[in-house]
Amino acid sequence: VHLVESGGGLVQPGGSLRLSCEASGFTFSTYAMSWFRQVPGKERELVAAISSSSRTTNYQGSVKGRFTISRDNAKNTVYLRMNSLLPEDTGVYYCKATAAREYWGQGTQVTVYS
């Protein structure tokens, strides 16, 4: 099983990034997917989640209206479009697959700097 995140980087406040998480080794289309972020000294927190069919999405309050989670089951990939980025969005972003089991990616760093 592999979850490989990409798309992180350095960006100024107000900028945008699109994260991708490509999955392999399990039946992606049957798993709910989510994005978490973590900063040093703090617990990993849920940013956004999407159901297996894309019918349902959920967002942390601080990112509503700025971030969009989506998925392409044909490509085994989940995305996180992040707009209007703020310094407090800085962190390591992880994707997670949830069904009968849970799988985590290794993370991608997002740094929003002034």
List the helices and strands and how they pair.
Blueprint (H helix, E strand, L loop, with lengths): L1 E5 L2 E3 L5 E8 L7 E7 L6 E6 L6 E3 L7 E6 L4 E6 L8 E8 L3 E3 L3 E5 L2
Parallel strand pairs: 2-11
Antiparallel strand pairs: 1-3, 3-8, 4-5, 4-9, 5-6, 7-8, 9-10, 9-11
Short description:
The model has no long low-confidence stretch (mean pLDDT 97). 0% of the residues lie in helices and 53% in strands.
Characterization of this structure:
With 114 residues, the protein is an all-beta fold. Helix content is 0%, strand content 53%. It has no helices and eleven strands. It has strands at residues 2-6, 9-11, 17-24, 32-38, 45-50, 57-59, 67-72, 77-82, 91-98, 102-104, 108-112. Strands 2, 4, 5, 6, 9, 10 and 11 form a seven-stranded mixed sheet that branches. Strands 1-3-8-7 form a four-stranded antiparallel sheet, with no helix packed on it. A hairpin with a 6-residue loop joins strand 4 and strand 5. The radius of gyration is 13 Å and the shape is globular.
